[in-house]
């Protein structure tokens, strides 16, 4: 009992996370740039959102175009109806199509810019 | 007819083109100036330039002529020409700009990493470009002969010389200004006479147009064995998808500052085209008032130019005819210069520059090859326009759209949106689409004894050839997963990621 028990060897205790990179220091933009699997997920999400929007616009366009012959076939009276003295088919194909196309185009541009700005916000955050 | 005034208008338009082109000569210094105007064109200027370039002889003279002949059914054509930009906008506008390529073959090679695809695309660009140039030259000859009595080779020759000079002088930078100016020239030249003629028509108690039966009803057969619904659907599909595949259209997208700019440009383009296309039906209708029957041997393409002389007469008629002749020439010049520009770019890169470098050991300045290419790009289609029988202006243009829709549209759309597109699949789609459309159009032109469905399917191949090309590209790609380019992800990252996201590796500097 004369010799006191040697104290246990000192052990250095540190936080296990000291050398770790702080959370979110790596922006997703780098994941995309370096084509990691995570980056692929981001890219897929962006492409799918854009493609869904594009297909929706194209579907509207096709439905709009197909509507004219369908209406003319189902309601024969429309063939001889006149608006401001111009026969109905001429009004649709000669005039109304163009503002409709412009409105669709503008709507698409707004929506796709919004998708891109949402995406940029998510991936550029450090 | 009225030589001096119309001649003066044509000369004025040609001189303006050369003068504005000369302005570009002083501004164009770098290679990117020549090809893509330094990529600094604002959406509004660019939209005018695209409108100016796109509204060709087919729109200025052809649509009115067709409406005169076949009535409301022909309005599908300008509708298709315009909706082509809507399809282009939603499918490819921004990604195309971000691809950072100069020409269509550049894009094909960058996306698929294959020299062979580049070569096939180059051949297609030149073929489609020349197919589209031929009717421009023929339209120019028709116009000049009609309004000044010049021999039929002169009109096309004048257009050829002016555009070779303008393209060779300043490349894309000067062409951008030239075309932006020409959109407004064309719109004014078509709108002012239309208003005057309409006013006179109202003053005369607006006599009803003398129309053939079914002139006012869409989708009516033009003869026995005609399939109007199939014909129309196929034409509209060809125009909608063909627009993105026309070499002179896509090259303009590279001149936008960024992807967002490319989209905004397209929206303005749709507005400009829509405004312009309100006018040709007016001429078609007034044509029916003035000429219940066209005299023997008169092409319906000339209805627009004949109207003022018939309805107004005297000095006023001469002035309006001169205006229309000038506008028509602006149409030939701007479309032809855009086409010549893209064909020149391809010829320069693929054929001349490598040769010149070999002969001179790299001493020749790059611009010299570009200028030789500009001459070659216009002389060959001019010769073709002299030796081939003119179809209708809008008909020949339609052929170019069909080929573009079945070849470049699948390549671009799948290239932009589908990760699993393989080099072999893309090549198979290009070849099948190209062979199917050119073979059926060739058969149609060579044989006129086909009737019923075979004739309809071959004359308007887009509705079956485009899905076929897509299907072949997809099936072959799925069968050859080993041939998916390793760079696919990198390319798609570049095409779709907005510019404000900083990408150090994937982005290429302009």
Automatic annotation (TrEMBL), chain A:
Spans through the membrane: 53-75, 87-105
Keyword entries, A-Z: Membrane, Transmembrane, Transmembrane helix
Region Disordered, residue ranges: 1-28
Record's protein name: DUF485 domain-containing protein
Source organism of this protein record: Phycicoccus sonneratiae
Lineage: Bacteria, Bacillati, Actinomycetota, Actinomycetes, Micrococcales
From TrEMBL, chain B:
Bilayer topology annotation: Multi-pass membrane protein
Gene3D superfamilies noted in UniProt: Sodium/glucose cotransporter
Assigned keywords, A-Z: Cell membrane, Ion transport, Membrane, Sodium, Symport, Transmembrane, Transmembrane helix, Transport
Keyword Aminoacyl-tRNA synthetase: no
Domain of life per record: Bacteria
Predominant location: membrane
Similarity section: Belongs to the sodium:solute symporter (SSF) (TC 2.A.21) family.
Name this polypeptide is given: Cation acetate symporter
Source species of the chain: Phycicoccus sonneratiae
